[in-house]
Amino acid sequence: MVLRNPINNYREYKKEDLIIFENAKIHFKINNHEDVLPSTSYKSIELFAGAGGLALGLEKAGIEHSLLNEIDKYAIQTLKRNRPNWKIEHGDISKIDFKPYKNKIDLLTGGFPCQAFSYAGKKLGFEDTRGTLFFEFARALKETKAPVFLIENVKGLLSHEKGKTLQTMLDVLTNEMDYHVFEPKVLKAIHYRVPQKRERLMIVGVKKEYLNKVTYNYPEPYEKIYTLKDALKKGDLYNSDVPPSSGQKYPQRKKEILDMVKPGGYWKDLPIEVQKEYMQKSFYLGGGKTGMARRISWDEPSLTLTCSPAQKQTERCHPDETRPFQVREYARVQTFPDNWVFEGSQSQQYKQIGNAVPVNLAEEIGHTLVKLLNDIYSIKG
Q1: Which of 13, 76, 101, 173 lies at a C-alpha separation of 20 to 30 Å from 30?
Q2: The pTM is what?
Q3: Residues 105, 44: contact at Cβ < 8 Å?
């Protein structure tokens, strides 16, 4: 039986599941990217850039950024602090003219928030999506004529409005904008050097003129599944223990309750009366509620990080110390380098990290996009 988180519907992997992944080495391979180095300098525009997880991963794959857009002022400060050489546009995407970049970029990327369309009496073509952030992404694609695009989003986009939202987007891209969209795929971050059970929907498209001459394959899973210990201790992922940083604290009573939970455990480890006290109405609802009063084990990947490290329904308690993960621990679970500085208040830093695409996952998808671009430009000569 597949267990799913009742809040975000992500699959919950048990320790024995990870052992199966580790032992089934026939299904995985060690990725070697030496054969997918950029054959020329590839330029990209990234929309809805956030704190730079996707952009940094693509940069590590060899892609250069011509422009990044973001509306959140704290994320903008983070981007400028870490990459002062990047051209960063702060503000409403609808105010940006992308025509100067026509035929000057190779890749358009972005993870726009999922918005519902108004379906009543509409054919839902490009113009009918106006007012949504998808429209702005599609407009940028139309104005730049980028040969390749990447959309990354939450897995929930697949089922949003019973699939109609995603289908509308695909129809616009394929029928009105002359792009071929490869089969969208949900990538599990734990298979791509990320110590976190996070899932992201990836959608890759290419101009139809290249369709019969190139193909695209999503990145192959890695052999090793990384755990929280790999994230926070010196090892294969990082060459030192996690640096100290600020972090949220639990109220006294909550700390007393979570003190009772063992590593890898959750609310069912509590005495029945404490379960009722802590969970309140949730105690009587269905579902596993495995995120409640959850303490992560060193020997498992972290659960998906949210924008706050101490939410009752999606708790992520440190294995040894009864506290939420600190800011730098959060960043490590998302595979940001230790020198990537997050600006703004503590809560703003948590929000930026929790919203980000894991850097290592972004790098893996970046290598596949480089290969696709290499193939396209070998055709163009």
Answers
A1: 13
A2: 0.89
A3: yes
